[in-house]
Amino acid sequence: MDDLHSINEEINRRAGRKLLPSIGVSLSLVSIVWFTLAYHRELFAALVAIAVVLGIREITRAFAHAGTNISAPAISVGSVALICATWRGGAAGLAVATAVCLPLLLVELLRRGPEGFVGRATATTLSLIYLPFLAGFLILLARPDDGLSRVMTFVVLVGCNDTFGYLVGIVFGRHPMVPKISPKKSWEGFAGSFIFTIIGGALTFHYLLHIHWWVGALVGLMVVFTATSGDLIESAMKRDLSLKDMGSLLPGHGGMLDRLDSVVLSAPAVWLALELVQRYL
User: Any idea where this protein resides (predicted)?
Assistant: First the structure.
């Protein structure tokens, strides 16, 4: 028993998080996503809105920690409006809602006066684009009749990138990828993401979407770069803001933003890939 405990502690130390709670949370989130899509797709839109609002809460706290105070309620209202507009109007709804919400949020900042306006406006714009706008592409993936297959394919792709990069990095990681941004991310882990995400893409495109396997392999390759970049961008934000995690909502993961980082950058890429496939193949 002591040996098993020692092994578990060593795995947790190398991973930088508790492994078993992390796995449990991941499986629970995948189950919730599948249920909302299979039962009533509007519930998935509500789930995305909840996740985004929780992410807004975390990112506004992070900016406040660095001395830049922006309005979480105002951005949250704008976020819900973006999600609703995207569900009702598709890509056009997302674009128009973003174009309307951004100036309204900037006008709302005027009541605090000119001091620090540029910093608050920049943080507000980043929050709106980084979370609700990019997350809106999850809604675009879910809207078609085959939305369940599309979103679950997306989940598999991002899951393969994160899970196998994480596991291979724990076991074989020796060479840091970008130590100043994410010390625990290794080239070995990146190779694990590369191999298994391409395999996952080939399998899911063939069996779930009934699209040529090689297209799925190419999309998987793309997701390796978008998901990894999303993870590094969020890590850079935390480093700059002197934070270990964006929150503590999800055991083994940190905050909601720590779970959404690879998702929000990959969703537009996968949506665009599927649109191109539908149009030209």
Answer: Cell membrane
Place of tokens 């509007």: 42
**d(Cα 51, Cα 100) in Å, to the nearest integer?**
22
The string over 84-105, giving b where at least 16 C-beta atoms fall within 10 Å of a residue's C-beta and e elsewhere, is bbbbeeeeebbbebbeebbeeb
Show the tokens assigned to 256.
Answer: 């909601």
CB atoms within 10 A of CB 239: 14
161-197 burial code (b ≥16 CB/10 A, e <16): bbbbbbbbbbeebeeebeeebbebbbebbbbbbbebb
Half-sphere exposure of 128 (CA within 13 A, CB side): 27
| Cα 170 to Cα 111: distance, rounded to the nearest angstrom | 49
pTM, whole model, 2 decimals? 0.90
In whole angstroms, give the CA distance from residue 83 to residue 264: 14
Q: Which of 56-60, 69-73, 244-248, 269-273 has the lowest mean pLDDT?
A: 244-248
